[in-house]
Each structure stands twice: as C-alpha cells, then as structure tokens.
Specification:
The chain folds into three domains: 23-145, no CATH class; 148-209, no CATH class; 219-460, no CATH class. It has helices at 8-21, 24-80, 111-116, 123-130, 148-156, 166-172, 180-190, 193-209, 232-243, 256-264, 266-274, 283-291, 302-313, 329-340, 359-369, 382-394, 405-409, 418-422, 426-433, 435-460, and strands at residues 86-92, 98-104, 219-222, 225-228, 249-254, 277-280, 319-324, 345-350, 373-377, 398-401. The termini are far apart. The chain is of the alpha/beta class. Helix 2 runs antiparallel to helix 4 (123-130) and helix 9 crosses helix 13 (302-313). Strand 1 (86-92) and strand 2 form a beta hairpin. It binds uridine-5'-diphosphate. Uridine-5'-diphosphate (UDP) binds next to helix 17.
Length: 472
C-alpha cells in the first residue's frame, strides 16, 4: 500500500510547533524550566546536607516542648531544696572544640524512677538544640581522652591560621606561661569576632614591646638587687627542686614597688640580696631591663605562678602551707585549690594577723603540717623579712612572699582581666580598685623607679651582670 502523504494541516502544525520551540520565547521558556529544575535539585542537595541538622532541631524542640512540664517541676524542686539542677561535663565536639555536656540532676524520692527513665540525659536535648551534639553520632570524647598534640592538630585544622596569634601577643607582653599549642587551643575555644578585634588592637602596642628575649643574661642587677632572669617554667622547676632538696631556700618577687622600698629600707635590700632567688615581677622591671640593655626573659609573678604550681603539685608528695591575709581568706584559697586542683595538697593555712606571743604557735603549726612549700602573704617587705628570720623554724624547704595573692584567689579582690594583663596594665587595674592607697605606689612609684634606674645605671656604667655570684 502506498504511504499516505502527510496531511497539509498536520505538516503546518508540526512546523508551527518547531518554530515556536526555537523562537526567542521558546528558548527562554526552556532555559527557565531548566533553571527551575536545577534550583530544585540544588535544594534537594542542600536539604540532604542540612537535613540531619534540621531533623535534630525539630526533634529536640518537639521533645523539649513535650517534656518541659516534667523538667520544669523537677528543676524547681531541686532549686527550692538548694540542690543542683544541672550538671556540666566537659566534652570535645566537632573539630575538637570543647563544649559542656548538660545533665539534669534529681534527688529525693523521685530519684529512682526518674533516674531509671533517663531523666538526667534530657539535658543533652539542649546540646542538640545548640548544635553541640546530634541525635545520632559517635560518643563525644573527654578532653583527656586525646593528648594535647592530637587535640591541637584536630582543632587547628578547623580554622584558618593567622598572622598574629594569642601566643605572639603574650610573648610580647612577657606572659607566655603556657605553650604555643595550649594558647592556640584557648584561642580556638573562645574564638569570636569581638575577640579577634581585641587581639588586633592589643597587637599594636605589643609591637612596641619588642620581641621576647632570646639572648638575655642569666642574672640582671637592678638598683643593686640581683634578679634571677629565668622563665616561669624554670621558676617552677626551681621551686620543685628546692622542695625536694635538703637546704631551705627563700624566693622573692621584685616589682617596682619592692625596688623602691629596698632603696628606703636597707634591711629589706639586704634581705633581697641574701635571698636564694629574686624574680622579675611586672612590666616595670622589664622596662628597667631594657633601659640597662638587659632583656628580662619573663614576667614571673606569684599570682600567675600559683595555679601553675598547684598543677605541678597534683599527685606529688609535696604540699603547701598558706600563711597570711585576713581571717577567712586563706581558707577560701584552700577551697579554690581543692576545687581546681583536687590532687594538690594544702597541708595547712593560717591568717596573717597574729601577736608576737602567738608566733611560736604559728611556726609550730607550719612545722607540724609537714609542708615543704610555704607561701607567706603579708605584703612587702614584711613577708620577706619574716621569712628571712623564721625560715629555718618553719621546716619548709622553700618559702616565698606572695603579697596580695591570697586576696585574688579567695575571690576577695578581683584580678585584672586578661586583656589588661596582655597590655601589661595590671598595675592600672589595681590603681583603679584602690586609688587612694595605690596612687603613690604606682603613679609616683613607677616614675621614681625609672628615674632611679636611669640615674643608677649612668653612675654604674653599662653592663648587666651581677656581682652576686653563687645564686640562681
Ligand atoms: N597582711 C597580713 N598581715 C599583716 C599585714 C598584711 O596578712 O600584718 C596581708 C593583707 O591582708 C593582704 C596582704 O598581706 O592580704 C598584702 O597585700 P598587698 O596587696 O598590700 O600586697 P602586695 O602584693 O602589694 O605586696
């Protein structure tokens, strides 16, 4: 049979369809359709990526809403009874960033039932809501499950490296007491835009301080007082070595105020000269070092040293005795130690207000405590003179005068915030706290100290080595 030729009208409509398909509007329509399909596909991909998070959010919100009456009632009961309603447990999350895993507490008659129903784990729903955790995922590790280097590697890879780091900043301010890795971790844990702006602003004056000392002399004489030019780490080693030694040693911290007092009180100057080690405390001594061209390695002050010492004492056979400050203050410092460093031993404590008649009892109490390390907080020069006179009777193997340290760690007096310490402005903070008592010490004292150093170094000629041989 002969094939039927296409009907004229069929042909016309096919032609019309084809020409409309390739017309400007046709092409545009098809392009839009493809773009729409592409958009839907991208949305699917996005949902796939965020789906887990969205599901986590929805489910945790739903569960928290349903369970909120129970949670509210139990938490209120706990608070009314003066008991804890929430417990925090530090864990490592994504990128090794620390977070607090939340657990609700429950006591009393409901403890059994609610405990069996897993009430305390409901706190984790808040962690899911906040994005710390997911419903499904690996078990969050504890910070001590990983060693410092593993954690640092994991975390450092989560942020872009920077030109200026917290370590760089603190090194310039001479307060780089922990390692570069620890400071990097601290930065990543607390990273925020505000924090970054703060670091950038603090970096500007820090550039003026000059770099950390690399070729510094081991000993620096300032106004005739021999300073042991050691780092915080070396000071800690020195304290621990002394505490395990056989001969009692005295360690002093010298800041600008101490140096000024030593100029007025020869017996105090003699005590500092006779001490086994005098450490450089504060920016004033560092500036003095620069003036006499002897770089001071680190600001080794008692307040920064104390927590590091407690950390090193954890689990060791060594113990400390806290002597000084107002009644109630050394007890609070003991509590601070036991809550922050539970394995560090405080062998005893006593306030610093006792009569000459009570002194022999105080000395006996220190001896009987068996402490090897004695911290005396009477303020300078009283504390250093007292140690010089009584060290042998205390039985301690290393004693140091620590000024207002107990007041800080008891929480009685707030310490300057970290950013002020990084700007070497801790003295300005103390001045703001007690202007009437401190203006003489800092405003006048710092200026007098610097003039004294310039005058003294001109008379003595240049050179930083001490004539006090045989010291640290
Ligand atoms: N203090 C003491 N006994 C005294 C005099 C003072 O225990 O006889 C304490 C006082 O309570 C304070 C510390 O010594 O806790 C001195 O603090 P300050 O800030 O004056 O010391 P700095 O660090 O300035 O040397």
């Amino acid at each position: 049979m002969k094939p039927r030729p296409p009907h004229d009208s069929d042909f016309d409509s096919a032609l019309a369809a084809e020409s409309s398909r390739y017309s400007r509007w046709g092409i545009l329509r098809r392009r839009l359709r493809f773009q729409w399909l592409g958009g839907v596909w991208q949305l699917v991909l996005l949902l796939n990526r965020w789906g887990k998070r969205i599901l986590d959010l929805l489910l945790s919100l739903l569960l928290l809403t349903i369970l909120s009456p129970v949670i509210l009632v139990v938490c209120t009961l706990q608070i009314v009874q003066g008991k804890r309603w929430l417990m925090l447990d530090e864990r490592l999350g994504r990128w090794g960033v620390r977070f607090q895993q939340l657990e609700f507490s429950v006591d009393g008659p409901h403890k059994g039932v609610l405990g069996a129903l897993g009430y305390r784990h409901l706190g984790r729903l808040i962690n899911v809501l906040r994005g710390d955790m997911s419903f499904i995922g690996p078990k969050p590790s504890r910070p001590d499950d990983l060693d410092l280097h593993q954690r640092a590697f994991q975390k450092r890879s989560s942020v872009r490296p920077g030109i200026v780091s917290l370590w760089w900043l603190r090194k310039r301010a001479n307060i780089d007491f922990s390692s570069e890795i620890e400071m990097d971790l601290e930065y990543i844990d607390r990273q925020s835009v505000r924090g970054d702006v703060g670091i950038a602003l603090r970096a500007l004056p820090a550039m003026l301080y000059g770099s950390g000392a690399s070729t510094a002399p081991d000993r620096v004489d300032i106004l005739g007082i021999p300073i042991s030019n050691i780092t915080m780490d070396e000071a800690l080693e020195y304290i621990l070595d002394s505490a395990r030694g056989s001969r009692p040693r005295q360690l002093c911290f010298m800041n600008t105020d101490c140096a000024n007092i030593a100029q007025r009180r020869p017996e105090y100057a003699a005590r500092l000269q006779a001490a086994d080690a005098v450490l450089a405390d504060g920016i004033g001594i560092r500036i003095a070092g620069k003036l006499i061209r002897a770089e001071i390695r680190q600001n080794v002050n008692g307040t920064d040293l104390f927590p590091l010492l407690c950390q090193r004492l954890q689990g060791s056979e060594l113990g400390i005795y806290l002597l000084g400050a107002k009644p109630g203050v050394p007890e609070a410092v003991r509590d601070w130690v036991s809550s922050h460093y539970p394995a560090a031993r405080v062998c005893g404590y006593r306030n610093g207000y006792f009569t000459p008649e009570e002194e022999s009892d105080v000395l006996r109490a220190i001896r009987d405590s068996g402490a090897q390390i004695l911290l005396v907080a009477f303020g300078a020069p009283k504390q250093d003179l007292w140690i010089g006179e009584h060290l042998a009777e205390t039985g301690a193997l290393i004693a140091m005068g620590v000024g207002g340290l107990f007041d800080f760690y008891s929480g009685r007096v707030p310490r300057a915030p970290q950013w002020m310490r990084e700007l070497s402005l801790e003295w300005a903070f103390r001045l703001m706290q007690e202007p009437s008592r401190m203006w003489k010490r800092y405003l006048l004292g710092n200026a007098v100290f610097l003039v004294r150093v310039i005058w003294w170094s001109m008379r003595r000629g240049s050179g930083a080595q001490s004539e006090f041989e045989g010291k640290l």
